[in-house]
Write a structure and sequence with these properties.
The complex is a heterodimer of chains A (114) and B (114). With 114 residues, chain A is mainly β. Chain A contains no helices and eleven strands. In chain A, the strands form two sheets. In chain A, strands 2, 4, 5, 6, 9, 10 and 11 form a seven-stranded mixed sheet that branches. The mean pLDDT of chain A is 90. The chains are: A mainly beta (114), B mainly beta (114).
Chain lengths: 114, 114
């Protein structure tokens, strides 16, 4: 049973296109996140939702828009893709926002913009 | 500026040997420190979470230590196995302790050779 699943696993597209990445968790967690892992391997938080409400919105271009239809889903839509958007995007969830809630990550979506 | 630095950047050891990975941080105020294992093409998986009052925590063959005074942590792997080949990421949680206060290290890429 996959705890945090995201689709697609690979996404190759051209500059200027619009694309979406979907994420679902079956752990019953309240909080979900999107992280970006760039070529230098640093993981950076982009967004955090708690019970469908936006909690964290880091300095991310407004071309990126998260949507949470329910607390088990957090999708990421990206408009007007740019070369610099190429990275691996990870969805994650945690029980809640408490201090010691470990993050459960999906297996990532490798986005390549050409 | 909050930073997490890990060393070595990469490490190759023979199967069955022990190894120790290092993590130094400048995150302040400090809440907790986490170690994650990231297999190639997969999302990070939590190994340990430690608060400032804990100086050691084990998870099977993985033992993490924390010195909150010197702001250093280490991850010791005993009797390494081929499946230990992965990147190990040190993550420090600052103010609030939640995901919004996480600072990620770049990871140590560990290769176990038969």
């Amino acid at each position: 049973d996959t705890a945090v699943s995201q689709t697609p696993k690979y996404l190759v597209t051209q500059m200027g296109n619009d694309k979406s990445i979907k994420c679902e968790q079956n752990l019953g967690h309240d909080t979900m996140y999107w992280y970006k892992q760039d070529s230098k391997k640093f993981l950076k938080i982009m967004f955090s939702y708690n019970n469908k409400e936006l909690i964290i919105n880091e300095t991310v271009p407004n071309r990126f828009s998260p949507k949470s239809p329910d607390k088990a889903h957090l999708n990421l839509h990206i408009n007007s893709l740019e070369l610099g958007d190429s990275a691996v995007y990870f969805c994650a969830s945690s029980q809640d926002q408490a201090v010691f809630s470990p993050l459960h990550f999906g297996n990532g979506t490798r986005l390549t913009v050409t | 500026k909050n930073q997490v630095e890990q060393s070595p950047q990469s490490l190759i050891i023979l199967e069955g040997k022990n190894c120790t990975l290092q993590c130094n941080y400048t995150v302040s105020p400090f809440s907790n420190l986490r170690w994650y294992k990231q297999d190639t093409g997969r999302g990070p998986v939590s190994l340990t979470i430690m608060t400032f009052s804990e100086n050691t925590k084990s998870n099977g063959r993985y033992t993490a230590t924390l010195d909150a005074d010197t702001k250093q942590s280490s991850l010791h792997i005993t009797a390494s196995q081929l499946s230990d080949s992965a990147s190990y990421i040190c993550v420090v949680s600052g103010a609030g302790g939640g995901a919004d206060g996480l600072t990620f290290g770049k990871g140590t890429h560990l290769i176990i050779q038969p």
